[in-house]
Amino acid sequence: MQNPIAPLLESANRIILGKQHQIRLALCCLLARGHLLIEDIPGVGKTTLAHTLAKLLGLNYQRIQFTSDILPADIIGASIFDPEERSFKFHPGPIFNQMILADEINRSTPKAQSALLEAMEEQQVTVEGKTYHLPSPFFVIATQNPAHQIGTFPLPESQLDRFLMRIELGYPNRNAERELLSGQSRFHLIENLQTELPPEQLKNIQQLVNTVHVSSALLDYLQNIITFTREFPDYPCGLSPRAGLSLLNAAKAWAFMDSRDAVLPEDVQAVLPAVAGHRLRSTSQDSGAVVAPILERVNVL
Predict the structure, then answer these.
(1) How far apart are CA 212 and CA 223, in angstroms?
(2) pLDDT, tens digit, for every residue of 80-102?
(3) Cis peptide before 137 (omega within 30 of 0)
């Protein structure tokens, strides 16, 4: 299977330095038709990553800054009375773009956070009983600050579950940071990027990801993982059926990115921390530590 996304990854890695794995996970999330949550401290490149992907994919991009006073209408739009036509006319909000950066989503109230639920799950919004479809492809990258920082509202489980993956960027290594300090502004580098994967081609690839083969043995392994999370006492709650589908779709996308037409157990293991870490809600904050018992105790068939 020919890999059409290698040039895109190469270009992104020149902008976001030393974060090859996180960039790969972000693109995997998009190919699997999911949404991405990035949790980290301010200033490590969360916004830069979103802007870079939007430029490389040629997607209409909109940043929404979430604050404590933002309202659902500020996100999805509102109907405003038109005196000339003597009727209400819907004015779409910033959610009507192909890529949305929901910046610092946990600084807004739960009411504003919930405005994204229908959009992320069904790719549509409903205003005053009328449904409006969102553009395709549609990808939400949300960022949130650590919960201990002032002015944050923790995302409820129902909202967390809408994100296929959760990742952290972390600090760059010394070599990457030296290049960052001595190199050009990331903003100017992003402005000069060319589209590597147009939206129509991206949609075709998303359809190809669905055709990646999954064997019965692989499904057994996946189901054993799901069952283990529901029985392991350290997890407050196990993975839901929707989480199982998310894990499967992410593994398919990971296999596709490796130019394979079938999913291997290694694909499931590669995406497991990002897909399951925020859903299992363990006392450990590190996604790798959260899923470590799964990787240690669930055997590959």
Answers:
(1) 18
(2) 888 888 888 889 999 999 999 99
(3) yes
Give pLDDT, residue 1. Answer: 47
H helix or E strand, kind and range, residue 218: helix 216-231
Quote the tokens at residue 273.
């921390």
pTM: 0.91
Which residues contact residue 126 at a Cβ distance below 8 angstroms, ignoring those fewer than 6 apart? 118, 132
pLDDT at 62 over 50: yes
Q: Return the C-alpha torsion angle 130, 157, 31, 1, nearest 10.
A: -140
Return left, alpha or beta for 129; rule: phi > 0 is left, psi -120 to 50 is alpha, else beta. left
- Nearest CA to 258 out of 275, 196, 250, 276 is that of 250
DSSP 282: -
**Inter-residue contact 27 to 54 (CB < 8 Å):** no
Q: Which of 86, 20, 84, 7 is nearest to 49 (CA)?
A: 20
Cα separation, 248 vs 242, whole angstroms: 10
For the four alpha carbons of 160, 169, 106 and 281, in that order, the dihedral sign comes to positive
Neighbours of 26 (CB within 10 A): 24
Spatial separation of the C-alpha atoms in residues 29 and 16, rounded to whole Å: 17
Place of tokens 């299977």: 1
How many whole angstroms separate alpha carbon 83 and alpha carbon 271? 53
Cβ pair 238, 263 in contact under 8 A? no
Per the structure block, which two tokens stand in for 82?
């038109």
The two three-digit tokens of residue 254, written as one number: 């990971």
pLDDT at 27: 97
CB-based contact 300:265 (threshold 8 Å): yes
